């Protein structure tokens, strides 16, 4: 079953047992959208200002996922994306993608708050193919794409009032004279009276299942949980009946998906403190053509099992020796093979490809400074990966011989309230430093001089019970690890609107042109 309207699919009356535990991925995968093409699942997620953007994740069992591609390298090249003139797109970038498959073509649609536009990308090869894009000169909030059986193409979007607008048959533009109307006015009111609405309904996901149109949204009533809603109608612009679909610990926002055996699941997410927004898989049964999400408590612990091949280890994060002879063939580049990086990496904002290399010194990632800035938030070519829960740690080896006066380089736990352990060069002397930005603008907690060219840094993050703390260490011999500075109290802040990431960085405050070499990035198993 390759079509995304789910026509004439089997709806089971009970679930087959299997074993899995939520969350299914212990890391920041916000705004997930998922499709099935035959026996393969593909998922997209929001990564905002990180590039390449909109990851394509693949699974055979809805549990084990790997990143296989990205939709774009960069979305725009303005001052906001290049961290120029004091501007940035933190908390913006691309939001809430919709993925669909129709007539052997994959479509991914999303809006950007930074550019104020909506983008429709398409490809015939989702894992390795070239994407073409069309641009709508308006931002359609949290849109969801639907290819209807009769050839019409719709996009459902909005907040509070949920709207539909019709696209051309090739899904590249708004259809002149096509459907354009509010279909679910004040959608939040099925969860709470108007005076108790906090966050109005948004996050639309539209699906057509057995001839019925279903629109899933979320709302957040005041002093209550973020709540999953569902509305349904027999016509795209007909009268929609609505109800609360799921109300448990704020797990909400997403669509539903069927397996090859006709089982159904909801793929939603939960806010999880500084770690970010993490995905949950919720079993679904059907009653009178309404999707019934699993029992609120027992469903999250129940032993269930969608069938299908198991893809094995989750490759959402990955260690890297920066050795092209061992780098994954699924890496990404800027068009040149010598720029290959493992696919788990994303740059903070647009990279400057002139200033990083894996070949200037084979076996090392070289980061060179190209401008001056005040702190890591303004730095170009900061390379990131997600952190993982419930706890994880990673370490790096760094060679600092070619730093210049005023340079900072090292290893960060990155969000608005970032912390890092690294090297600062002042004059002819290098200092190992720990910085805790939650206490002020780059507050340096501890520093001491170092007179060797190779140093090692480690960060341990603890998300258990949402304690959200990061610990920083250094080593001079790769064997004895010493704590440095203080503990970073991590906080999820809307300034950045993403979970904490490990970040490799090098920036200049005085003189551009210095460089450092990272020998490895290793996740502790």
Descriptive report:
This is Glycoside hydrolase 43 family protein. Pfam families: GH43_C2, Glyco_hydro_43. One of its GO terms (molecular function) is hydrolase activity. Belongs to the glycosyl hydrolase 43 family. 0% of the residues lie in helices and 43% in strands. It is built from no helices and 36 strands. By secondary structure, the protein is mainly beta. A hairpin with a 6-residue loop joins β31 and β32 (469-475). The chain folds into 2 domains: 33-300, Glycosyl hydrolase domain, family 43 (Tachylectin-2, Chain A); 337-523, Jelly Rolls. An 8-stranded antiparallel β-sheet has the order 3-22-25-35-27-28-29-30, with no helix packed on it. Strands 23, 24, 26, 31, 32, 33, 34 and 36 form an 8-stranded antiparallel β-sheet that branches.
Compact overview of the structure:
This protein is mainly beta and 525 residues long. Helices cover 0% and strands 43% of the residues. The protein has an eight-stranded antiparallel sheet, with no helix packed on it. Strands 23, 24, 26, 31, 32, 33, 34 and 36 form an eight-stranded antiparallel sheet that branches.
Features:
525 residues; mainly beta; Tachylectin-2, Chain A; Jelly Rolls; 2 domains; eight-stranded antiparallel sheet; elongated; disordered N terminus; hydrolase; glycosidase; GH43_C2; hydrolase activity; Glycosyl_Hydrlase_43
């Amino acid at each position: 079953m390759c079509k995304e309207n789910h026509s004439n699919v089997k709806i089971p009356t009970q679930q087959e047992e299997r074993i899995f535990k939520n969350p299914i991925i212990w890391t920041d995968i916000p705004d997930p959208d998922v499709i099935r093409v035959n026996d393969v699942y593909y998922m997209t997620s929001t990564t905002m200002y990180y590039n390449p953007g909109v990851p394509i994740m693949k699974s055979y069992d809805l549990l084990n996922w790997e990143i296989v591609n990205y939709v774009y390298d960069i979305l725009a090249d303005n001052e906001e994306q290049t961290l120029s003139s004091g501007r940035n797109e933190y908390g913006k970038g691309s939001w809430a993608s919709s993925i669909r498959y129709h007539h052997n073509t994959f479509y991914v649609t999303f809006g950007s708050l930074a550019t104020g536009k909506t983008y429709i990308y398409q490809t015939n090869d989702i894992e390795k193919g070239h994407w073409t894009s069309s641009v709508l000169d308006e931002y359609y909030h949290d849109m969801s794409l639907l290819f209807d059986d009769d050839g019409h193409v719709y996009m459902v979007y909005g907040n509070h009032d949920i709207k539909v607008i019709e696209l051309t048959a090739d899904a590249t533009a708004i259809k002149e004279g096509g459907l354009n109307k509010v279909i679910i006015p004040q959608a939040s009111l099925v969860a709470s009276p108007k005076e108790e609405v906090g966050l109005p309904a948004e996050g639309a996901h539209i699906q057509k299942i057995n001839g019925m149109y279903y629109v899933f949204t979320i709302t957040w009533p005041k002093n209550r949980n973020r709540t999953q809603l569902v509305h349904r109608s027999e016509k795209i612009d007909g009268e929609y009946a609505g109800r609360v679909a799921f109300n448990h610990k704020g797990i909400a926002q997403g669509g539903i998906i069927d397996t090859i055996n006709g089982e159904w699941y909801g793929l939603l997410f939960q806010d999880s403190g500084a770690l970010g927004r993490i995905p949950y898989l919720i079993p679904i049964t059907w009653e009178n053509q309404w999707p019934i999400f699993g029992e609120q408590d027992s469903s999250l612990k129940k032993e269930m099992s969608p069938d299908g091949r198991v893809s094995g280890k989750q490759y959402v994060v990955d260690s890297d020796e920066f050795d092209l002879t061992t780098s994954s063939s699924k890496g990404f580049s800027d068009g040149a093979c010598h720029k290959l990086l493992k696919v788990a990496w994303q740059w903070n904002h647009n990279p400057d490809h002139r200033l990083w290399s894996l070949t200037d010194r084979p076996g090392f990632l070289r980061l060179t400074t190209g401008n001056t800035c005040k702190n890591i938030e303004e730095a170009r070519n900061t390379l990131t990966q997600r952190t993982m829960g419930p706890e994880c740690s990673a370490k790096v080896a760094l060679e600092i011989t070619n730093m210049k006066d005023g340079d900072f380089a090292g290893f960060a736990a990155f969000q608005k309230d970032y912390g890092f352990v690294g090297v600062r060069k002042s004059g002819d002397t290098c200092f190992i430093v720990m910085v805790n930005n939650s206490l002020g603008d780059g507050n340096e907690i501890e520093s001491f001089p170092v007179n060797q060219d190779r140093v090692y840094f480690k960060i341990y993050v603890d998300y258990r019970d949402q304690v959200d703390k990061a610990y920083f260490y250094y080593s001079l011999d790769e064997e004895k690890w010493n704590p440095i500075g203080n503990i970073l109290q991590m906080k999820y802040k809307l300034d950045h609107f993403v979970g904490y990431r490990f970040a490799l960085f090098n920036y200049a405050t005085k003189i551009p042109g210095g460089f450092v070499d990272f020998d490895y990035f290793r996740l502790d198993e």
